[in-house]
Here is the input.
Amino acid sequence: MSYEKMWQELGINLEAHDNLLHVLEGFYENIYLSQKNRPEGMEYFDKVVSCIHGARIQELFKAKKENRLVLGTFCVFVPEEIVWAANGICVGLCAGAEIGFELAEEVLPRNICPLIKAFFGFKLSKVCPFVEICDFVVGETTCDGKKKAYEIFNEYKETYVMHVPQKKDKSSFDLWKNEVINFKSEIESRTGNKISQDDLLKAIELINKRREALKRLNSLRKADPPPISGLDVLLINQISFYDDPERFTAKVNELCDELEERIKRKEGVCPPGTPRIIVSGCPMAIPNWKLHYLVETSGAIIVGEESCVGTRNIRNLVEPKGSNVEDLLEDIASRYLKIDCAIFTPNAERIENIKSMIDEFSAHGLINYSLKFCDPYTTEVYKVNKKIDKVPTLNIETDYSQEDIEQLRTRIEAFLEILK
Here is the structure.
């Protein structure tokens, strides 16, 4: 099916976009479709990726024609329950590849993290239909680079910024709760829909179910051998930011049913006893699959991601204790402030969560993954290394380029030798 007319309507640079899709197709085939013994349930997620700029954008087009608001975001701190409660749609935006960096460097410092440079690059190159179709972008102050970049990004796409505090004390919670309340007013104003208690409860249930399905999927990776690769789970986590939540949840649960049968048959994607790795650190947006690919083609298996594209995003559910809209907004604020992002000081919860994951998933090693110039995560590596003494750790700092692949492979292979 051709989506060219739709992309033209969005102002997409068709030539550059065609080139991007062509490269991604080959990339996906080499990395994903070459895996052996994949679960049959991955067929749905392969299809989603194959037309992620087509079928899903078409759905969003239809929704906009029905006067539904589409909001784009780059961060798990944006309380999407409020968007869905107002009959809006919340989607992730493109930020996982080295696209349009030369254009981005005309407005941003060269030494800024690749994720920030990428979301600018995708926009300036006009190759991300998600950012073009959304009504506005919601940013957050989760790091200084993003905070300042959003000021400039607003010149290209209207951007609303939420102030995320850096501590978790009472005054910080009050600040954050007010931000959540203000966000609800903003969404109501833009949609013209007043959010009721029932609306919020339904939206909380919708997103909680998605998180529960992903938690179920993660839990199945505790088996030895794991019934699914880390690459495939990373992909599913990435797709969770784009796909319709109700459909996505159903497909993840179908996949989990299949994986449970595999576990009963002791059928895995690698031999029992294969070195098990936890990856911890920066998020990995589509199509950032470099680290997982290198680890899993070097003789190990990734069994957990302590990341925003992983457990950090699904660990806590919203507990709807409130009996009115204000109380439910407080429940939402409380859930989001439990996220253990490296921007917080102190951030002892994150280290405790990494320790728990190492135990729960019987991990043999930990890889600290940081994007270059990401100060919060690169700096926090020191504390993680100091506190994690149960298993060997490897620190990797990289970007979206392919230039360091062989160097990284050599380091990963040497690390895996230590684990054997």
